[in-house]
Design goal:
The complex is a heterodimer of chains A (237) and B (122). With 237 residues, chain A is an alpha/beta fold. Chain A contains nine helices and seven strands. Chain A has helices spanning 16-24, 42-47, 63-76, 94-106, 121-134, 150-156, 159-162, 169-177, 203-236, and strands at 3-9, 30-35, 53-56, 81-84, 110-114, 146-149, 182-186. In chain A, strands 3-2-1-4-6-5-7 form a seven-stranded mixed β-sheet, with helices on both faces. Chain B has 122 residues and is an all-alpha fold. In chain B, 87% of the residues lie in helices and 0% in strands. Chain B has helices spanning 3-24, 30-48, 51-60, 67-121. In chain B, helix 1 (3-24) packs antiparallel against helix 2 (30-48). The radius of gyration of chain B is 26 Å and the shape is elongated. The chains are: A alpha/beta (237), B mainly alpha (122). The A-B interface holds A 34, 53-59, 61, 65, 68-69, 72-73, 76, 159, 162-163 and B 89, 93, 96-97, 99-104, 106-107.
Chain lengths: 237, 122
């Protein structure tokens, strides 16, 4: 099965080489790095690995859209499985096999690698709040470590997904709307080696994120039920 | 003709002339040009005959007639702002998908070039 690891990177020159090397040791996936308009030497660092595919965005589009670029690339080449992986060294390559095994076992379209031990008290409150509001039974909604199958790749490559700003609740809600299933698996993660969170980099960003995601959850509630019903009818027919 | 009528007529004529000139010079898209022409004709009629708003206000039961064109203008501006937001969202999605596509194509070109170089060497 053709499978790839997609790594969105923005100014990650200090960690990206280490992340790629550790993934290459697994020798099981194609590695795709999406440089999200970095202003440091991230691109040059990635180019040191000839087997790694580098997609360079001319302008900074944000973490989700960089990730979507990789997903679209995989979609166009007919990849059957995509794993999204952070470039900051938080995720451990050893957990990928666990996630894939879990996907095969549960037969879910998406597996989220969760690590609820990380994050501040405020982040835990936000996680619980959005879990309640969206009705999504995933604890670590902001985790960037995810496994998507071909159906999920197809949904996430579409125009509708380009409207999203973050990878978390919006993506999961969209997948749910399309009748896809997801599960999570607790995995160990390392603390961030370098840089700051791209979502929670300032109090203003946190406030914007909270308001934006709340509105997204509320506005999609009815749509979600309708679409699930429609999908059920479609499958039953 | 009252002074206020002269004032509204001058403003309306200036607006109409400006809108017409912009349409003539192809500064705005044909679809928008039609909307602006229609709006400028409406403003021209109201500017030349401001007493029309008095009749309309009486019909609608509005106690202060001059507020009617103001309310009308506000509604149009709000609608225009909403339409502009919709348009800019669509344009942004298109632009972002183009940026994504460019990076994918750039990679394909690079790959092809590398393959060609390898072929040449061998």
């Amino acid at each position: 099965m053709r499978q790839a690891v997609v790594i969105p990177a923005f100014n990650e020159e200090k960690t990206i080489s280490k992340v790629i090397s550790s993934l290459q040791r697994l020798n099981a996936f194609d590695i795709i790095v999406v440089d999200d308009g970095s202003t440091d030497k991230t691109r040059e660092e990635v180019k040191k690995f000839p087997k790694v595919t580098l997609l360079s965005l001319t302008v900074n589009l944000g973490a989700w859209k960089a990730m979507q670029t990789g997903i679209r690339y995989c979609h166009s080449l007919g990849y059957k499985r995509v794993i999204t992986f952070d470039a900051d060294g938080q995720h451990l390559p050893a957990t990928l096999t666990m996630l894939i095994e879990h996907q095969t076992k549960t037969n879910c379209d998406v597996v989220v690698g969760s690590c609820t031990q990380r994050g501040s008290l405020a982040r835990h409150i936000a996680w619980r709040f959005f879990r309640l509001l969206s009705g999504i039974k995933i604890f670590d909604i902001t985790s960037g470590l995810r496994v998507y199958n071909a159906e999920a790749i197809d949904v996430l490559s579409g125009k509708e997904a380009t409207l999203l700003e973050y990878q978390d609740v919006g993506v999961l809600l969209m997948l749910k709307n399309h009748g896809l299933t997801f599960t999570e698996l607790k995995v160990p993660m390392k603390p961030r080696e370098d840089g700051i969170s791209r979502i929670f980099h300032s109090w203003w960003a946190v406030a914007y994120y909270m308001a934006h995601t709340s509105l997204l959850c509320i506005s999609k509630i009815k749509k979600q039920h309708n679409l699930i019903l429609m999908n059920k009818q479609k499958y039953n027919a | 003709m009252h002074n206020y009528q002269l004032f509204t007529a001058v403003i309306a004529i200036i607006f109409f002339a400006t809108a017409f000139l912009l349409v003539r010079r192809d500064t705005i898209l044909p679809g928008s040009a039609l909307r602006w022409t229609f709006l400028s004709i409406l403003i021209l009629i109201l500017g030349l005959f401001p007493q029309l708003s008095d009749y309309a206000a009486k019909l609608l039961g509005i106690g202060y007639p001059p507020i009617l064109p103001v309310l009308f203008a506000c509604m149009i501006l709000l609608l225009k702002a909403l339409l502009s937001d919709i348009r800019s969202t669509k344009d942004r999605v298109k632009l972002e998908r183009l940026v994504q596509k460019v990076s994918i194509l750039e990679q394909a070109i690079e790959k092809n070039q590398q393959a060609a170089e390898v072929k040449e060497k061998s």
